[in-house]
Amino acid sequence: MPIVPSLLDTDLYKFTMWQAMLHRHPQTQAEYRFACRNATAYPLAELIDDVNAELDHLCSLRFAKDELEYLGQLRYIKSDFVDFLRLFQFQRDFIRVQATPEGGLSIEAHGPQVHVMGFEIHVLAIVNELYFRRLAQPDTLAEGRRRLQAKIAQLQTLASGPVLAHPFELSDFGLRRRFSAAWQHEVVSTLTAQAAQWFKGTSSVLLAKQLGIAPLGTMAHEYMQSYQSLGVRLRDFQKSALEDWVQEYRGDLGIALTDTVGMRAFLADFDLYFAKLFDGLRHDSGDPFAWGEQAIAHYRELRINPHTKRLVFSDGLNLDKALALWRHFAPHIQLGFGIGTNLTNDLGLQPLNIVMKLVRANGQPVAKISDTPGKTLCDDETYLAYLRQVFDIADPETTTT
Fold this sequence. Notes:
alpha/beta; nicotinate phosphoribosyltransferase; 6-stranded parallel sheet; 5-stranded antiparallel sheet; about 45% helix; glycosyltransferase activity; Nicotinate phosphoribosyltransferase; N/Namide_PRibTrfase; ligase
């Protein structure tokens, strides 16, 4: 059975970013590149033939009628975008897979951004599932079920715990690093059945459709990064991206991602105008407690009541960390927690830390300068240095204490 059964088997924010780019910058050319950030149990290059076969299948898929109808029922998805998807098919010529000299995988997608940006989540799901098929043991799923039930029991203790100003709300953000599609379905359906008071939805559009729960997501770094190449003054790329998002969605999908060039630089652009228009902010790097305090202080400085806004945490969370953040911040602001790997790949095996990121757009480099050392991504040191200069961001490798 193919790993990707449907083109809906991807994260919601792929569709929301896709629509925004199609409407505003359909001519953008882009390059996406796969990377594995941790050591692997065996060389990923051994998966090349299987990865290629799965990509061949992916490129044969089209959106089914009922899938298009489902997307069309989401009030922020426009009818012309659904018409585009009705004709859409991934092009095999736009993506290639090779072995690296070190025995790793090199996967690159090049082409019009509206034709290649969708590869990312599918590629990561494919590599993950192929990798873990070789590592799974007879008791792997049993261990996964034991750990899942422990999480559910931990959630259920909240029913008799203290009542804070804002409830604990958990979502599945684990498609890209899941153990398998079948396991993600089991995890999400189990949480939906046994922990509905706290479990609020999934980033997977296919699972949301199948299980009748909410699809969740807004934007990722690639959307913000793209604006570094779109002809606006580099210093203004964040404001331009946020303004286009507001005009596209006009009140829907109002969670802004803060760490494309760091929280400090983001807040300098996130003025009263944007702070009122967006519902809240998403954390994806750096100390989450410090980040949350910065966000609340920023809202208060703008004389916005933090209780009317939401912070979404999604950086490497497990349930213990999410609950600690909830207890800290729930008296002050609305909260959401997106857990990925620790929901869909917590079976006793060492997860892969893999990404597939935008590295160039319109022939020039783009970059993310993360608040977490090691997550900064750029293949052009000159451009990275220039971006740091424009936003007055110190290089951690040259900063001394």
